[in-house]
Design brief:
The structure is a single chain. By secondary structure, this protein is an alpha/beta fold. It has 7 helices and 10 strands. It has helices at 8-23, 74-82, 91-94, 101-129, 158-169, 198-208, 238-244; strands spanning 28-38, 44-46, 57-65, 87-90, 145-147, 179-182, 185-186, 192-193, 212-216, 231-235. A hairpin with a 5-residue loop joins β7 and β8 (192-193). It is elongated, with a radius of gyration of 23 Å. It starts with 7 loop residues before the first helix and ends with a helix.
């Protein structure tokens, strides 16, 4: 059976449409592992009272997410799907409709401040309930605790901030030289909540050298492909995280 070749103009039109399909923006975002910040390197300061140096390291984890204004095209999405350390999500799953980079930055900053306030309250409440940690009641003052975190935003550092405060206020050696990392929101009464990008944060912690990762119990069903050499423990409360340590 013979076929007539397409006219040249039709081939040109098809080529144009195919090229546009390749470079057309698609409603997706790409999530990548972020950085690990040791919270004992000037991120937490205890002033006007006794504190103790940490014998170990606790990492605050972050992820990198393409901003809501990014131009994500088909080849980028395919490449990210192939790479084991990247994830692709529909934009609507990460950003509400109408989100801009400016509004997202403002929200992330507000969430971080609220997370830090919750962490202070949760940590001091835990120490009040556990006098065996040896911190005098007069030393449980929120005003003596400050945070200085400029490289990340959002609420997911709450649990790690609370653990860091407890470690610095407690003479007991909680870390015993270990390098740990973790993530999770926290409420003032110590409940740990789930976050996004859990697998990317575990991968980043593993690359930074952490051997123990504390994850929210609410993310248990999301955790997959744990790298060898790092143990992941899920916790629902600050008390469970401290018991793990």
């Amino acid at each position: 059976m013979r076929f007539s070749p397409l006219p040249r103009i039709a081939l040109i039109i098809l080529t144009i449409f195919a090229s546009l399909a390749v470079i057309a923006p698609l409603p997706y975002v790409i999530i990548l592992p972020g950085q690990a910040q040791n919270i004992f390197e000037k991120l937490i300061t205890i002033k006007d009272q006794k504190s103790y140096p940490a014998n170990g390291r606790i990492d605050l984890m972050s992820i990198r997410v393409t901003n809501p204004n990014s131009w994500i095209i088909g080849p980028e999405i395919l490449y990210s799907w192939i790479k084991a350390d990247e994830a692709v999500y529909p934009r609507s799953a990460i950003y509400p409709p109408g989100t801009t980079q400016k509004s997202e930055d403002k929200k992330a900053k507000a969430d971080m401040v609220n997370s830090q306030d919750n962490a202070k309250t949760a940590a001091l409440s835990f120490l009040r309930l556990h006098p065996e940690y040896g911190v005098p009641a007069d030393d449980l003052q929120i005003k003596n605790i400050t945070f200085d975190v400029k490289k990340t935003g959002g609420p997911s550092g709450g649990m790690i901030f609370a653990i860091g405060v407890i470690e610095l206020l407690t003479q007991k050696d909680l870390l015993q030289g270990r390098h740990i990392a973790g993530t999770g929101t926290i409420t003032t009464d110590g409940k740990v909540g789930p976050i996004g990008g859990i697998n990317e944060k575990i991968l980043a912690a593993h690359k930074a050298g952490a051997t123990l990762f504390l994850a929210p119990a609410g993310n248990s069903g999301d955790i997959a492909n744990i790298p060898p050499g790092i143990k992941v423990v899920t916790v629902a409360t600050l008390a469970e995280a401290m018991a793990t340590l």
